[in-house]
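Thread: N-acetyl-L-glutamyl 5-phosphate complex, take 2
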Amino acid sequence: MKTGIVGATGYGGAELLRILQAHPEFSITSLYTSSQKGKNIEEHYPHLTGLFPQKLEEINPVKMAEETDLIFLATPSGISSKLAPELVENGCSVIDLSGDFRIKNQAKYEQWYKKEAADLFWIEEAVYSLPELNREKVKGAKFISNPGCYPTATILGLAPLVKENLLAENSIIIDAKSGVSGAGQSASLATIYSELNENLKVYKVNQHQHIPEIEQMLESLGYKSPITFQTHLIPMTRGIMATIYGRIDTKITKEEIWDLYQQFYSDEPFVRLRKLGSFPTTKEVTGSNFCDIGLDFDERTSRVTIVSVIDNLMKGAASQAVQNANIMFGLEETLGLQFSPVYP
Ligand SMILES: NC(=O)C1=CN([C@@H]2O[C@H](COP(=O)(O)OP(=O)(O)OC[C@H]3O[C@@H](n4cnc5c(N)ncnc54)[C@H](OP(=O)(O)O)[C@@H]3O)[C@@H](O)[C@H]2O)C=CC1
Ligand SMILES: CC(=O)N[C@@H](CCC(=O)OP(=O)(O)O)C(=O)O
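Output below.
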């Protein structure tokens, strides 16, 4: 399949290049840029020296749709809302890694992203796909909206309990931490070494744009109340840890909760559960498409603690996008994604 990437010079795009280089079905034929036309990707990323001969081309949706079967949009929010519809209309399949088509309510998108929403028709056309929860909708789809990084870790951590309606109203609190690559490649004061090194920062308190995405998905699974969701920047390059708390009012034991998770994820190739009372670290999923989950239940407080980790650039972005591409094209879901995490 002829495959193109827009935003290959960014971090998510670079991970797409790494994964697709070894993929047996998706062949990278074209790379597109808004700022580096005519250059080779190795001028931007020396670690890719000698690997991708094609020059970066300018963005022209009609031409792109003629040249490729599938385009990954690894662009900032506010870009794909314009680009994706033209590509799909011209017959190209699209997977958008940005937030532009995830939130199905335009007013909510504008409130949280502080940007103009995409056209409602195209928001509805885009299939939001967290494969473990809605892969059926993806088969044969032409246009996929890939989930956000924090939502992936959070929703996978909560889904088994939410689907069983076990969490009390207004009881979910998510304390999430991300490595700095989550902010992309462009430098900002918050992410430079001297600001971040040996430091821990909370940011976007009660204002994170992933709140409506998580709430939308939890609502579709049956949890109707708002969540408390806070994010922290931690001095490491990659990884997200979402530590999730919720209250369970039904009489239940921790072993029963763990059994529920085991059953829910028993056939999932990319969700790994730790033994009851053991918890994953971010390094244990680095460079992979895994989401690792550990949990405990405190019978004194009736509170469950769930720890869910992913690599933000992989299961949180690029490798999940490839998982979606595999499903879209009727391929084995794990194709090109069966590699171990990078450790240590
Ligand atoms: N980083 C992460 O962990 C995650 C990121 N995402 C989302 O994925 C997308 C990409 O993120 P990330 O790779 O981190 O971001 P980066 O900032 O690292 O890269 C984004 C790329 O987009 C391209 N770009 C910038 N402006 C435009 C434009 N006007 N038109 C077309 N392309 C443009 C740039 O490439 P060029 O200059 O060559 O055009 C740039 O390299 C974002 O929407 C992000 O929110 C989602 C989940 C996790
Ligand atoms: C560490 C860091 O800054 N992370 C980013 C991740 C967001 C992202 O990837 O943007 P989307 O809304 O397109 O998913 C943030 O918190 O805003």
